[in-house]
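Fig. S4 source data, part A: sequence.
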Amino acid sequence: MAPYIVCFVLTCTTTFISSYYKKHGRRVEFCFFSLISILLPCLLAALRANTVGTDMLIYGERLFNNSLKTSFYDFVINRDNEWLYYFLVYISSHVFEDIRFQYFFIELLTFAPIYLTLMRDKESNRYAWLGLWVYFFWLFPYSLNLMRQSIAISIIFWAFKYVEHKCLKKYVICVLIASMFHVTALIGIIIYPLYYIVTYSKENIDNRYSLSDNKNVRFWRIAKKYGRYIPWLVAALAVVLLFQYSQLVSILNYFDSESFGTYYENMSHKTSLPIIRNYVLIALPIFALYLLNRKYYENSDKQLRACFTFSLISVILYQAAMISSQTYRISLYLHIFWPLFIAKYIAKTKSAKTRFLYICLVMILSVLFWYIFFVKSGWCEIIPYVMR
């Protein structure tokens, strides 16, 4: 496990340094340390053995070997979907003929968009290192396992700027590109309307629509009125799923006993429910601290409000993975907003003492999450780290 810790600490340190140079306008130093920050996790991913990551043998070794024996048309063009991932595998295997380069480029396409997105915000990029700390201990292991989807998730996360700037066409193009790596990325389209439902204010409504435009005004005022209750509704559903899961499965069993009953038994046998409960308990202190000062944070930054809602929804979808594995995959597209939420949340905290305590809490909870999920329970099968 030591290679992970060393890589994570070094990357967060160089990210802290690069954000310092960015703040003071020293572009050369900023680019140099940013390059180091991006390359470190890419090298960690490239040098791993084929035993590190659940899907390595299928979407790593097997595809690499098949690409060397197959024509470009049969391997890339003659497919129903996800052409860009197979194109990446084909090009990397034929140009370099070493699978380590394939893993390097996969991680580069995964990590670089996340790094650039966290560094993009002028106000919170000084805490981009903390956002990466959260990413490494909560989400990085998935990039060593769900390689196709991890690239798609990163593209959706990077494209979030188009949501904020109301560039629907550009955002849709990014979603389509992401879906060419993994088809589940199409779910990312819901982020666009959800963002505006959560963040729209009365002033936006009155400025955008005339009083005679009754239908539009009515719609957005309803969205504003009830949109603020979305986080509370999600929290209530999360509690129901967490503590009344067996009763919920009994109800679902009534409609489809074979599907839900069998899945529940299989997942319960793997002790996934206690693990998911631990996830909620780890996330709960962070949500509680935010909600205690919710009015201040929401009034100061609507992007923070959206990231909080996305993170909260990811919790309930993570729990719903007990019912369907697809909800677990969908949750990752919202789970990726955790690092940005944490970075912005800490940046908005005025008191230096409170900020320090929050940082310590986030770092400790992140390490605890890593230990419970990836070390003790063996999710993604990344422990121990073995070099090729």
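Fig. S4 source data, part B ends here. The two ends are 15 Å apart (CA to CA).
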